Amino acid sequence: MTGIKILKIGGSVLTDKARLESARFEVVERIAAEIAGAGEGLILVHGAGSFGHIHAKNFGLVEMFSPEGVLQTHRSVVRLNDLVVESLTGAGSNPVPVHPLSSTILKDGRIDLMEIGPVVEMVNRGLLPVLHGDVAMDRVKGAGIVSGDQLVSHLARALKPEIVGLGTAVDGVIHNGELLAEVRRSDLSKIGSDLGPSAGVDVTGGMRGKLQELLDLADDGVSSTIFNAEKPGMIERALRGERAGTFVEGRA
Amino acid sequence: MTGIKILKIGGSVLTDKARLESARFEVVERIAAEIAGAGEGLILVHGAGSFGHIHAKNFGLVEMFSPEGVLQTHRSVVRLNDLVVESLTGAGSNPVPVHPLSSTILKDGRIDLMEIGPVVEMVNRGLLPVLHGDVAMDRVKGAGIVSGDQLVSHLARALKPEIVGLGTAVDGVIHNGELLAEVRRSDLSKIGSDLGPSAGVDVTGGMRGKLQELLDLADDGVSSTIFNAEKPGMIERALRGERAGTFVEGRA
Fold this sequence. Notes:
2 copies of one chain form a homodimer. Chain A is an alpha/beta fold. Chain A has a single domain (5-248), classed as Acetylglutamate kinase-like (Carbamate kinase). Chain A is 39% helix and 23% strand. Chain A has 10 helices and 14 strands. The first copy, chain A, has helices at 11-14, 25-36, 53-58, 67-90, 100-103, 117-124, 148-159, 185-191, 206-219, 234-240; strands spanning 5-9, 42-46, 95-97, 104-107, 110-114, 128-132, 134-138, 142-146, 163-168, 174-175, 178-179, 182-183, 224-228, 246-248. In chain A, the strands form 3 sheets. In chain A, strands 3-6-2-1-9-13-14-12 form an 8-stranded mixed beta sheet, sandwiched between helices. A 4-stranded mixed beta sheet of chain A has the order 5-4-7-8. In chain A, β7 (134-138) and β8 (142-146) form a beta hairpin. In chain A, α2 (25-36) crosses α4 and α7 (148-159) runs parallel beside α9. The first copy, chain A, is globular, with a radius of gyration of 17 Å. Chains A, B: Keywords: ATP-binding, Isoprene biosynthesis, Kinase, Nucleotide-binding, Transferase.
């Protein structure tokens, strides 16, 4: 679909990942303002950060089905989603919350089914759908975590967007202290497990999980950029298609 | 699917429909306790009442697409959904909120697409999915209202449940001051537009809309019961399959 842009903002940008449910309000507000300036055609996905990851970990949700864990983890990430939607409204966007738990089924941790029709309708009507990392039902495990990164790659695979940008709390993929301007699958064995920092509690795989997700997406022909969303102005640059951070090139 | 029961509780039961966002807390609590006693296999749908209907009306949402109307109407019904989920948790159920806006697309006011897989997975795992009348994207009008009644008939058509019960604030379909124990499509022309009271603001068609929905469902072979959920004990009776109120018989 032409004209669509998918932007992910990591939970480590929006929250203090080490402290339960602590949003970084000033960052959320700044990012909302940057997004409001980005125009139409955008789908936003945000991570859970300390809303969700800590709950999921406490309930052992990844290892063991827990009805209370499903509800409490979901409600926690929805609280962050509410904050993001509120800030976007204040900044002049027309956000609409979209909750993966309502539309998605996993199979052993991977998206097996996700209804994205409503998201597309929203974008077509000038709304800004705001999805988030969430808990979702899992055909194998009962329930599991669907990360914002997995949502991004699923949406991007289906919609073939113009731009896929992943805003994180670091400059991109760091290897031996250096920012990699570009990563291809063939680089992965070279750089091994040293992929730079990933702060706080994360049940979804950190930078390695993110890169794996984006390399799989690249195999399907969709390029993406990992950039530093803590630096003002970077969202705008990423959404314009500028190379800023690490570029994961799609193989057409 | 055997063993599934679908219960709808009307917005006029859970809220004071004449006053903006006024939940009837003691009723919500009592109903939550009755539902918690009903065992597994249940899907709950609740109406919006004064959460949603009044917003939708104020924004003219049915006639005219409004980005702010979509968000504000949705957030309002989600506030009621939160209350219901909270009460159900307190009563010992394992509720999970399911938001139609995330999973459903309308076409000129009717459900064109709805992903119900997550709802089925929830029931299979012993959770209690809690859906609600909601705003949803509409391929023709931009956005529209999907009533709890329409959700019930859509789910029932797909799942062929054992029981479909619709708890309202009246005893059932009243004609000439008398409760009709049974209604078939052939009765509709006889009873005309006098179908008993429907209090407060309702953008989804009142008792006539409900009956039309259930007669369509009956045509597809699924029976349902309209009963008075304001009377304690009636939910249990309806879920046991007792004839209480007005029975709309499915033609096999």
